[in-house]
Design brief:
Length: about 500
Amino acid sequence: MTRTGSEYIESLRDGREVWYDGERVKDITVHPAFHNTIRSIAGLYDRTHEPDLRDVLTVRAPDGGRVLRAYQVPMTRMDLVAKRVAFKAWAEASFGFLGRSPDYMATAISGFAAAPHVFTGATFDGAPNVLDFHARMARNDLFEAHTLVNPQIDRTKTPSQQEEDDLYLRVVRERDDGIVVRGAKMVGTGAVFGDEILVGTTQRLAPADADYALSFSVPVSSPGVKFVSRASYEDKARSVFDYPLASRFDENDALVVYDNVFVPWENVLVYRDVDVCNSQWWKTPAFVNFVHHGATRLWTKFEFLTGIALLIAKANNTAKLPPVQAQIGKLMGWLNTMRSMVLALEAACETVDGPGGPVQPNKEISCAQLAVGPELYPQVLNEIKLLAGGGLIQLPASFQDLLNPETVPLLRKYIRSPGCPTEERVKLFKLAWDALGSEFAGRHEHYERFYHGAPHVYLSAIVREGDTDAYERLAQTCLDGYELHEEAP
Ligand SMILES: Cc1cc2nc3c(=O)[nH]c(=O)nc-3n(C[C@H](O)[C@H](O)[C@H](O)COP(=O)(O)OP(=O)(O)OC[C@H]3O[C@@H](n4cnc5c(N)ncnc54)[C@H](O)[C@@H]3O)c2cc1C
């Protein structure tokens, strides 16, 4: 069975070491920097028990129990479609603002399980561990976070060339029962809310960096795992009315330090193997599964933002003006570009290399989604800001001004529009500001640009993964079709 929200909340009271604003947090489930978002995630788990969503969000496992559909290894295109319907149902619950909901890593882990042979290296065979890991996470309905990026210390140096040899996470000791690791990783989004963290690297490593070529899963409450959280927007949000998104969907980002953390062998997926370390993302469906989830969420977010734009245009009574219709048209075009990319990467799905015949989202289209989504997101925000005008800023400090007898008549008189009374207008524009301009919104703009890596990494991936020969051939066919002295007919 999948967990209930309250079971999830209870599981977080495990002594995890979270540092926030100069203090160690005693219990994140009641701390104002974290508690509302925890309840939003708990709400996702509760949805898996709702009669009309149970079959959307979960599937029957071989042992008869139900597991999150995101953990399913898809065997057909329709399985991929069903996974997307499940991603969308959860994405709509946060309007696309919880990027690292538990289904995100769940689908990546199903990608590992679709091609376990990739984890068989020359000196370490992680394949059996991958299958056990997948089964354990699905069966226990666990929330896996991930930290795959080394800290930005000196990007001109490889991990082993950094000033100290344990700045980037590495293995420092091998024991009969496992390994001890030390170092840091960034940016642990949602990691403080998880059960375990997948620690790995997406950076291409040289043979000299073998100590850094690791992939493993570690419980969040393991001794030595320390989180240093960024400022919490939830903490600063004074009310849901004033900051409806930041107050409920602030999924947190933290520096994660692994200070002599013990990892049992059964949790190790890749060990001191630079080739397998890299292949785990590109030769299994893990990365394209990330994209399938992220693209579905971004499509949902574009639907939400377009809805905000439509409501603003109505509130400002500009909806029927031809230039405003053109702005809305642009937003709907972008929304449907995102939607089309999700449908296309499913329609053109490919068989995973290796035995068993699972399918995966189309690699080239998945990479293309990364070339387009991060470019479009800031443009969407910009277009809606242009549409909204000064109303985004001309807002009372808080809902208190709508309750105060001195200020409420002023606000009622001057902040309104035809068919849109003051409270409704303030409510709408405060939501819009939280989506477009608040600190929370700024973090989201940055997230959409970087959550799948830096552009120089994902844009070169499309060249590597794409059918460049076919495009060259087509251009060459044209070149071959005429000679130096050929006259125009
Ligand atoms: C909000 C947010 C949430 C995130 N959540 C997670 C998470 O949950 N888990 C996780 O593992 N990661 C997460 N990330 C990290 C994310 O994966 C990285 O930020 C991303 O991979 C880029 O790496 P970097 O930040 O180290 O940038 P860098 O690699 O340092 O690159 C920054 C810029 O420097 C330049 N640059 C650097 N190196 C080169 C080069 N070799 N060639 C050309 N140009 C170069 C480019 O302009 C590049 O855009 C998150 C990031 C953000 C912003």
